[in-house]
Amino acid sequence: MKPNRQKLLLAVLGLIAVVHFGDWILNSMIQQPMQERQARVNQLNKDIRKLETQLSETRMLSENTNRWVKQSLPADPEVARSVYRHWLLSIVRGVRLRNAVVDSGSPSSRRTKSGAVLFRNLPFSVRGRGTLAQFNDMLFQFHRAGHLHQVTAFTLSPISTSGQFDISMNVDTLLLPARKGTELNSETSNLPASKSPGDYQLIVKDNIFGIGIDHTDPMKHTIVSAITFSNGVPTVWFTEQLTDKTIQVPLNGEFDTVALSGKVLEANDYDVIIETGGERLLLPIGKPFSEAIPAPQ
Known about the structure:
Helix content is 36%, strand content 31%. It has four helices and 13 strands.
C-alpha cells in the first residue's frame, strides 16, 4: 500500500505543479500580454483624443486669430491713433455728449523672446458731459463696433440734480502686426445681447444713483444774456436760468456751466464764438446753448 500511496501523492504533486505551471503560462504568456496590449490601446486612444482636442483648439485659435486680425486697429500706431480717435469722436458727438474730449496715450508692445512684436496696446480716454441716456447710447454703439477694444474703466459723477453727469472712460485697443490697411473694421460685433438699443433703456429708467433728477435740458435754459465792452475788450455774460446764476467771462477766458464748459474765443455786439470739446460754436446773444451752430473757421 505504501508504494501506491507514494505514487498517488506524487501524482497529486505533479498535478498541482502542472496547474501552477499552466496558470503561470496563462498569466505570463497570454493574459499579461493581452492586458499590456489593452493598456497600450487605451493609452493610444487617450493620446488620439488629446491630439484631436489640440487640433480642434489649434483650428479654433487659427479662426480666432484671423478674426482678431480683422478686428485689430491698423498696425501702424500713428495711423491707428488718428482713425480710432476720429471714430470715438464721431460716437460721442453722435450722442451729443457735451464738452467731449478724446485723448490717446503712448503705445506699448508685447514682444517674443526674439524681439518680434506680438501686439501693441494703444490706450484712449474719453471725457464729456451728458445724461445717463446719452452715456447708455454711447456704450451700446461702442460695443456694437467690430474693433479689438474694450472699456477698462469709467466714472459717472452726477452734477447736482440736473440730470447731467461728468463722464470719463478709459479704453484699451490692440494693434496686431499682421493687420493690413489703414481703415477700421466696418463689420459689427455680436457682443451686445440685443441688437436693439431700446432694450437697454431699463438701465436709464432704474435711476441707479437714487437721486431726484430734473430732466429739464440745461442746454435750453443756459443763454448768452449779455456782451459788454470795456475799452473795446468784450466780456460775455452766461446765465443759467434754472439756477438764476450768471457768470462773466472775458475774451480768451474759460467758463463752466451745467450745460457746457469751454473757452470764449471771439465776441461782438451780436454773438460769441466759443470752443468746447474741440468744436467751435457760434452763440447769438439772448439765445440758449441748444441753438448754437458750428462757427466758421
